[in-house]
Amino acid sequence: MIRWREPLWLFALLIPAGLLLWDLFLRKSRLMRRKQFASLSLWETIAPDRSDSMRRLKRWLFIISLLFLAIGLANPQVGTRYEEVTRQGIDIFIVVDVSKSMDTEDIRPSRLIKARYELSRFLQGLKGDRVGIIPFAGTAYSLMPLTLDYSAAAMFLDILETDLIPNPGTNLEAAIGTALDAFPYEEGRGQAIILVSDGEDHEGGALKAAQKAAEKNVTIYTLGMALSKGDPIPLTDEEGNQIGWKNDDEGKVITSKLNEDLLRQIANATGGSYFRATQGGEEFRKVYKHMFGMDRKELEARRITDYEDRFQPFLIIALILLLLEFILPAGKTKLMLDNKFRSHS
């Protein structure tokens, strides 16, 4: 398998290709102009040291050297070894609350921004565990299916915003149910849900969904992403500038507080654990420590484990061709002319 470390240099291949086409185009025009000036047989007398073949050879050496130079600078790499990799892990769905209350700033800079940052750090500690992402508000959907590509998961975390789901509210039942439906059935492999929320539940049914998770041997770990005292929910314009606070129907400012009891009950119903978020984020690392006791299934994958640079031969060939182009004369050598003179005499 070949890959290019500096693929942008491949665009430089257009230079020798253009020079080649230009040379072919000018070759006909040069021949026509030469015939207009004198016959081809007369040129042997007018310019005895001229050699069209040598000139053409020098141009081709230069063009081909540019070709090899461009390939060398692009640095082709060859996969040299295949390896069977065995991993052990569990399946984890990260279920993140993206309702408007997650904009509250009782946890700085906001509940959602802090959750995204800590979850990104959490991903860095995973080894062999498949992870998926489900955002939810008034409804929920699977944003990213289970994968071992943690860098892709981190990119999906970055797009989580409180305007991602147009349905307002907080539906914990839909969030847990979506994760349960997205899990593949694999006997002997542990499955867990990490539920990150402030615990608000406008629809009800969260404990019922947790009981279904327990029946399917899915463990739920809940992270209370808020403080007990709570804070008002900020309102922002399209440019992200704060324009006020969210009010209820009576015009009073709404204070979003942590519903710790509900989150603890959800976790306990499945044999999981509840953690309250802190500014330091230690609770996210504690979650993974609790997961070590879960059943971990072996996965095998064949992959290329090593790539080696192969730019050296191309640069050496380019250098040799450039040296040849520089050394070779543009016309017939003196020795050739002397031999021709002797043969005529």
Can I get a quick summary?
With 345 residues, this protein is α/β, with parallel strands linked by helices.
What key phrases describe this protein's structure?
13 strands, about 350 residues, 2 domains, 11 helices, elongated, 6-stranded mixed β-sheet, 3-stranded antiparallel β-sheet, alpha/beta, single chain, Rossmann fold, about 40% helix
Structure explained in plain terms:
This protein has 345 residues and is an alpha/beta fold. It has 2 domains: 2-75 and 310-344, no CATH class; 85-234 and 251-300, Rossmann fold, CATH 3.40.50.410. 42% of the residues lie in helices and 22% in strands. The protein has 11 helices and 13 strands. The chain has helices at residues 14-37, 40-46, 52-74, 111-124, 150-158, 172-182, 206-215, 260-269, 282-291, 311-327, 334-344, and strands at 2-4, 76-89, 91-97, 130-136, 144-147, 191-197, 218-224, 231-232, 234-236, 242-245, 255-256, 274-276, 297-309. The strands form 4 sheets. The chain has a 6-stranded mixed beta sheet, with helices on both faces. α4 (111-124) runs antiparallel to α5 (150-158), α6 packs parallel to α7 (206-215) and α7 packs parallel to α8 (260-269). The chain is elongated and about 105 Å long. 29% of the residues are buried.
Write the layout of secondary structure elements.
Layout: E1 2-4, H1 14-37, H2 40-46, H3 52-74, E2 76-89, E3 91-97, H4 111-124, E4 130-136, E5 144-147, H5 150-158, H6 172-182, E6 191-197, H7 206-215, E7 218-224, E8 231-232, E9 234-236, E10 242-245, E11 255-256, H8 260-269, E12 274-276, H9 282-291, E13 297-309, H10 311-327, H11 334-344
Parallel strand pairs: 3-4, 3-6, 6-7, 7-12
Antiparallel strand pairs: 1-2, 2-13, 4-5, 8-11, 9-10
Helix pairs in contact: 1-3, 3-10, 4-5, 6-7, 7-8
